[in-house]
Design a protein that fits this description.
Layout lengths: L1 H11 L1 E4 L8 H8 E4 L8 E3 L10 H5 L19 E8 L6 E5 H8 L1 H6 L1 E4 L10 E2 L1 E4 L2 E4 L6 E3 L2 H16 L3 E3 L7 E5 L3 E5 L10 E10 L1
Antiparallel strand pairs: 1-12, 2-14, 3-14, 4-12, 4-14, 5-11, 5-13, 6-7, 6-10, 8-9
The protein binds fe (ii) ion.
The site of fe (ii) ion has 3 residues, from loops.
Length: 218
């Protein structure tokens, strides 16, 4: 299982498990896959529900029930979580999670541009502004980050990359996986894949998904 999981993640950047291990919690599953991480106090398990009103500096505050733009999670952190695990509590076939392979982004925009593209968080964290590259070699992989809400270009190449990435995202066809049934589970490589929630249709406002971040797989 562990080898298969690693191989599949290396191959596709994500893995979908239908109606997975119904008697176990997301924490059990996260621990069986790898090392869960707590991104903020009491944040081990986060429950994601659609919101029409939320703080303006959040995705829900900006986009409400609409389609979220493609991003990697916590892209404004120096080291974003390596993996995210999503598990369905209440789901719908017509609210798929959309994914785009960052390797295709590298092929298109080029490693040269992405690695030199400097971005910074739109809001300073704790008074510090960190400069972040869209793409960098970490361990044995290329780590990609992208978030048009929380990051903004901070160099000339950053500006160029910003336009190129947005342009490319607007034309590419994402992979869709629906967390439709309770216990459907999706593991995503957050250093490689960009993801987005599709729009919440009328009658789907009770969608609820749990999320746990992992820093590594076993
Ligand atoms: Fe996300």
């Amino acid at each position: 299982m562990r080898l298969e999981l690693r191989d599949q993640m290396r191959k596709s950047g994500y893995m979908f498990f239908s109606g997975y291990r119904p008697n176990e919690s997301i924490v059990d599953i996260a621990e069986s896959f790898g090392r869960p991480l707590v991104p903020w106090e009491n944040g081990l398990v986060q429950t994601l529900v659609p919101r029409t009103e939320a703080a303006p500096n959040t995705y829900s505050g900006t986009f409400g029930l609409g389609h979220f733009p493609f991003h990697s999670d916590l892209a404004h952190w120096r080291t974003p979580p390596r993996y995210l695990l999503l598990r369905c509590i209440t789901g719908y076939m017509d609210v798929p999670t959309l994914m785009i392979d960052g390797h295709d982004l590298i092929d298109t925009v080029t490693i040269d541009v992405l690695a030199r593209a400097i971005f910074k968080p739109r809001r300073p964290r704790d008074g510090n502004v960190s400069l972040l590259r869209l793409c960098e070699s970490v361990e044995d992989v290329m780590r990609i980050r992208w978030d048009e809400v929380f990051l903004k270009p901070a160099s000339r190449i950053g500006e160029i990359a910003n336009l190129q990435v947005r342009e490319w995202l607007s034309t590419c066809t994402p992979t869709a996986r629906s967390l439709a049934q309770t216990h459907d589970t999706l593991l995503i490589d957050n250093w490689r894949m960009l993801h987005a929630r599709s729009a919440i249709r009328v009658g789907r406002e009770d969608r609820a998904i749990e999320r746990v971040y992992l820093e590594a797989l076993h």
